Amino acid sequence: MTENQNLTPFFRFLQLLYKYKKFFLITNTIVFLSAVLISLILPKWYEGRVVFIINTDVDMAGSVTSAILGNVGLPQGILGSQSLILTDQYINFLGSRYILDKIDSIYKLQEDYDVKYRTVFYKKVIQNTNFVNNGDNTITIKFYYRENPQKAADIANSFYLELNNLVTNLKTENNRKVRIFLENTYQETISKLNVAEEDFMKFQQSTNIYTLEEQIKLAVNNLYDLESEKIKLEIQKLYFESLGAENSTEYNAVITKIKVINSTIQSIKSKDEYIDIPLEKYPTEGLGYLRLLREIKIREKILEFVIPQLENARLEEQRKISKLQLLDAAVSQDYKAKPKRIVVVFVITFLSLISTILIILIKDFVKNNTNRLSQVFSD
Q: Per-residue pLDDT tens for 5-37?
């Protein structure tokens, strides 16, 4: 007893292992062999892997979107931030019930997983998928399937195809909304321009007023420039709303610009901040001339912007170029993705070693305390 107490903890531990070596070796050998057997009989899971790139050039080169953004004059960083928004958005699309239902309709995965409830099925599919934002405008889709490498590849490819179809349809629908908005703006502008021109002609015939001072012309130029800029911002505001980016910094910047322009327009109409003499002080005929001329200039300026954008929008709506470009399609793998047999054996064996050591320590502790208690009671 005294000899044991003089040993260091480490040598005491080695002594215990030697004392229970038979139990230690037999138990861990059995567990090791069992772990090897388990690793061999576990089902093989194969990975289907797809990599694709988000092609922002589809919208940013020669499209109505490019024209809108370019004319509004937003900071250059908007393209990069928009790309980040799209990447996160597409990852959310991939995990949506819409795409999961599409995949299930093709491959009957709910029957394959043998689950009763739809919610459980969705969780099962998500557990067997991994959508990775690679940080360079590319996304990787990984899908794991048991015992069938070809099906794992087919399902991974289907995720990409269904996302591509969804994105293409959404892009077409967004372009349709922009085209309708521009068409309505065009028709409304033409109607108002015709009325303004007729009213202006009648006004000139009745008053014989055909020119005004340069101050009035300056006010008119300021107003129609501001009004046309406001229309451009309204069009861009619709574009951001079609993307669901109402919370973005760029969207808030557009809203602020619209408010500032509205305030400036109101000041030009009612104050003398931008011209030497307020408009209200001019003769009634002069004000009538100004209003009619301003209306014509505004409508002409709007048409200068709307007509080319409308033509672009009509062409863009007919385009079927995908925003997603496939880099690596999934192919049937000849090597399983999981389970990792070495890892399985290592983990089980390691846990067994720890468990047997704890059992030996507990047994020794109980034995030592039992002897001490027996001595106390015997005394």
A: 555 777 777 887 888 888 888 888 888 888 888
58 with 122, same domain?
yes
- Of 111, 138, 170, the one marking the end of a domain is 170
Q: Give residue-wise pLDDT tens across range 73-93.
A: 444 444 445 566 778 889 999
Our count of domains for the chain comes to 3
| Same domain assignment for residues 114 and 62 | yes
Residues 24 and 137 in one domain: no
Three-state secondary structure string covering the chain: CHHHHCCCHHHHHHHHHHHCHHHHHHHHHHHHHHHHHHHHHCCCEEEEEEEEEECCHHHHCCCHHHHHHHHHCCCCCHHHHHHHHHHHHHHHHHCCHHHHHHHHHHHCHHHHHCCCCHHHHHHHHHHCEEEEECCCCEEEEEEEEECCHHHHHHHHHHHHHHHHHHHHHHHHHHHHHHHHHHHHHHHHHHHHHHHHHHHHHHHHHHHCCCCCCHHHHHHHHHHHHHHHHHHHHHHHHHHHHHHCCCCCHHHHHHHHHHHHHHHHHHHHHHCCCCCCCCHHHCCHHHHHHHHHHHHHHHHHHHHHHHHHHHHHHHHHHHCCCCCEEEEECCCCCCCCCECCHHHHHHHHHHHHHHHHHHHHHHHHHHHHHHHHHHHHHHC
**Digit-coded pLDDT (tens) for 258-278:** 888 888 877 766 655 555 444
Q: At which of 144, 170, 196 does a domain end?
A: 170
Whether residue 279 sits in one domain with residue 187: yes
